[in-house]
Design brief:
The chain is α/β, with parallel strands linked by helices and 265 residues long. It contains ten helices and nine strands. α1 runs parallel beside α2 and α4 crosses α5.
Amino acid sequence: MSGAVLYDCGGAGPAPGVVEVVLAHPGRLNAMTRAMWRQLRSVFESIQCSADARCVLVSGQGGAFCAGGDISEYPGFRFDEAALRGFHEDDVWGGLQAMLDCDVPIVACIEGACMGAGVEIASCCDVRLAAADARFGAPIAKLGFAMAPRELALVARAAGELTTRELLLQAAVLDASTLRARGFLNHVLPQADARGEALAAARRIAALAPQAARRTKQTLRALAQVQGGQAPAWSALLATAYGYAGDAEHREGIAAFLEKRPARF
């Protein structure tokens, strides 16, 4: 079976409002093919447009998250500059950018191998939970190439510059407890509990106000752009930041608190 990015577009996810996205490439530890990167983009563009999606749970199939890129494809394009640029700027970054642009909260359930492309995909998630057996790395220096600029910047923002230097310059492989101590992971869980705890986290998010979550992600994205020297993004956000004042979700949340009852979002 070739690789695929699986998700249920019909709303029959693992819990109400939760969409599960599964990286699936049997026999390859879910290594990403070019087709899978394109599918990742399509999936997250669809989720962004879904009114029913309240949280996304990203996982890998068969006890691994993602072991990196599918190296068996590399001879077909990596030795031509234009083709290599198209792979990274269109295929890979297209998938990652769609995740970054998604206003629906994303929870990562990381088990086993999380290498290269797996670290990049995890870096796009809002909450990162890992099983104790998870291992993280990007040993591409052994393959004779560097991480593409946009991808490196993404990992450095999420994992920190010193950790990124260690992963790339030393081809280091780090365990989950180390990445937790360095702030890349929210929690490290017993292997048997990882899936259940990640799903529970996704359910908790899905039960909260969905439009408030989307606005939070929009604000965080604008803040990142300001820190990157793109101040107009912040001004544009401030111009519309309080447009939700009369929304039903806003009214329901306040009313439920005052009436001492659970909110019905």
